[in-house]
Amino acid sequence: MSKRERLSVTYKPCFPENGSYDPVLRTKINLEQPRQVRVWSKDQELTEMPKSWKNIKVAVCVTAKTVWLSSSMLGVTLDATDVLICENDVQPVCPFAMED
Description:
- The chain contains one helix and five strands.
- The chain is mainly β.
- The protein has one domain (3-14, 25-87).
- Strands 1, 2, 3, 4 and 5 form a five-stranded mixed sheet that branches.
- A hairpin with a 4-residue loop joins β4 (57-69) and β5.
- The longest helix has 8 residues, at 3-10.
- The termini are far apart.
């Protein structure tokens, strides 16, 4: 097996693909000081962190913090520094919706 093939087998992507769904970015969100994520409203003002991150559409600024390596995998740790709340309480879309 070539180095490229070994890398593709062990690399854990930041955008894991899940079948026909759009990829989802995996990032770390620090909830406590001193590196607590800053949360912004649509009005570009600092706001409180949401009680739940479910069903919220956001835009995120991230920093590539570290490259990690284990015996069977490697990847990059992304750290969210700022989050813009775009929409609250976005209704989930049924994954079983069928077209007529």
